[in-house]
């Protein structure tokens, strides 16, 4: 079927997440739903297995940001298809697929950018190195575009002046 005649939902069915990306996405989703205060399953009902405003606010603070309540709510609203104020695993994966398939740059990317950074930051230390980004960048972009992607994230230098590997934070 011609891509122009396909609905966005039909197009997303053709977007495939590679196994290493799925593994990273699962790790990040679990991290995000457990980042905020402990969730009382009875009090939160179905929301205990979703990313909520407090989870996202705690994560952003950990990453060095000072988000307002409205900033956090906007990030969630951008991907919250069922408008319950939380991000389910399905909404999380849909957001990821939409962003990796987006050729126009028009998809909301606030949560995607956070998730991307956390996918690279395997140990959740708040910083990533070139080495940590290589696997995911290679899987997604291939060898041909790898150097360009690294340059876009880290700039021209992959090492600091003293020869140590360059690290960046989410804010950078």
Automatic annotation (TrEMBL):
InterPro entries: EF-hand-dom_pair (IPR011992), EF_hand_dom (IPR002048)
Limits of the EF-hand domain: 67-102
Alphabetized Gene3D superfamilies for the sequence: EF-hand (1.10.238.10)
GO molecular-function terms, A-Z: calcium ion binding
Any one Pfam family match given in the protein's UniProt record, by short name: EF-hand_8
Name of the protein described by the UniProt record: EF-hand domain-containing protein
Classification lineage: Eukaryota, Sar, Alveolata, Ciliophora, Intramacronucleata
């Amino acid at each position: 079927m011609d891509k122009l005649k396909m609905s966005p939902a039909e197009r997303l069915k053709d977007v495939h997440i590679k196994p290493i990306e799925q593994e990273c996405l699962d790790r990040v989703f679990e991290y995000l739903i457990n980042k905020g205060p402990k969730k009382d399953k009875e009090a939160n009902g179905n929301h205990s297995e979703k990313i909520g405003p407090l989870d996202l606010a705690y994560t952003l603070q950990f990453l060095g940001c000072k988000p307002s309540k409205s900033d956090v709510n906007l990030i969630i609203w951008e991907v919250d298809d069922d408008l319950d104020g939380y991000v389910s695993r399905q909404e999380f994966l849909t957001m990821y697929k939409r962003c990796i398939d987006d050729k126009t740059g028009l998809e909301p990317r606030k949560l995607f950018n956070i998730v991307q950074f956390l996918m690279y930051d395997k140990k959740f230390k708040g910083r990533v190195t070139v080495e940590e980004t290589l696997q995911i960048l290679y899987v997604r972009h291939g060898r041909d575009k790898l150097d360009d992607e690294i340059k876009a994230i880290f700039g021209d230098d992959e090492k600091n002046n003293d020869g140590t590997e360059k690290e960046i934070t989410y804010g950078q």
